[in-house]
Design a protein that fits this description.
Layout lengths: L2 H18 L7 H8 L6 H9 L3 H19 L5 H7 L5 H12 L3 H6 L4 H5 L20 E6 L2 E9 L4 H17 L8 E6 L12 E7 L11 E5 L2 E9 L8 H16 L1 E3 L4 E7 L7 E10 L3
Antiparallel strand pairs: 1-6, 2-4, 2-5, 3-4, 3-8, 6-9, 7-9, 8-9
Helix pairs in contact: 1-2, 4-6, 5-6
Length: 296
């Protein structure tokens, strides 16, 4: 086994654990145990593998999630959003936010749809921008998603559709070779990062397939459980050369449908369902947005 890829998978488990509840203050002993590293070496290994200290990583994840809430949870006050994401006060949140994004949380929220703000790469969806898709016939369903047991390979950095395709080929081959694929196995992509808020060097995307409960992680290949719940689902049919258009559909979904829906994003990652592992080209891609009732 390649030791470096095994180490990276174990650090990925820590990032997944922290991301699942950004309000908690995790102990070094707890996170070192999740990575199966000695607590005496864990922090140095984390920095060497990710390029960030643990504290920097946790702070960045909290700030990015809070920035998304400022855009999409318009009824939540800045103080509530600060507390929602593990900050002790709105003042501490504002200082950290300004250091990271170069503006105050109130300015970020107020100017998120202005043209100059869009050019600064803040704010995923701009409902006033010209759509590059045919909106006629787009239908969003509200459904209940079950928990999913997934094997995954993670990409850190800019999205590349050809490279992501190769990741799926490798993941499916590994799952097949180990007899891990679930019956009627499905493929998914988890988009952990909002590409218009997060610096592209830290974008996280997981290529995933459904596997049996007894599957074992190995080397680069990790396992995770994607929590179920209520989702909004938008189905689009694209051929392989059109996959770059998914971003336009996400922008319509978040910028046009969501504000009028009566819902807000739930604290779970958005994901894409690509259909059966054994399927053919032309399967619809389902954009899946975890939702909850608006909190007043």
């Amino acid at each position: 086994m390649d030791r470096s890829t095994d180490y990276r998978r174990r650090i990925n488990n820590v990032v997944n654990h922290v991301s699942a509840d950004l309000t908690r203050h995790h102990t070094i002993d707890e996170l070192a145990g999740i990575a199966h590293f000695s607590k005496f070496h864990f922090l140095r290994l984390f920095k060497a593998i990710t390029g960030e200290t643990l504290a920097q990583c946790v702070q960045r994840l909290r700030l990015e999630a809070a920035a998304s809430s400022l855009i999409y949870k318009t009824t939540r006050s800045i103080t509530d959003i600060a507390l929602d994401h593990g900050f002790s006060s709105s003042a501490n949140f504002a200082k950290a936010f300004n250091r990271h994004f170069g503006c105050s949380p109130s300015s970020f929220r107020r100017t998120r749809n202005r043209t100059d703000f869009q050019k600064s790469n803040f704010g995923k969806a701009n409902p006033d921008s010209k759509s590059h898709i045919d909106e006629a016939g787009l239908v969003v369903e509200i459904v209940d998603q079950t928990d999913l047991c997934l094997a995954y390979l993670r990409n850190i950095g800019p999205y590349n559709h050809k490279g992501i395709g190769s990741m799926f080929d490798e993941l499916i081959s590994w799952s097949n070779d180990n007899s891990y694929l679930a019956p009627h196995a499905q493929s998914y992509g988890i988009t952990w990062s909002d590409s218009h808020i997060t610096d592209e060097s830290t974008w996280r995307y997981d290529a995933c397939v459904t596997v049996i409960e007894t599957a074992k992680a190995d080397g680069r290949f990790g396992l995770l459980k994607l929590e179920g719940g209520r989702i909004a689902r938008l189905s689009v049919t694209l051929n392989p050369t059109e996959m770059s258009k998914l971003g336009d559909y996400w922008d319509w979904f978040l910028g046009n449908w969501l504000p009028e829906s009566g819902y807000e994003p739930a604290p779970r990652p958005s994901f894409e369902h690509y259909g059966s592992v054994a399927g053919s080209n032309g399967q619809p891609v389902c954009l899946c947005l975890p939702i909850q009732n608006i909190k007043e």
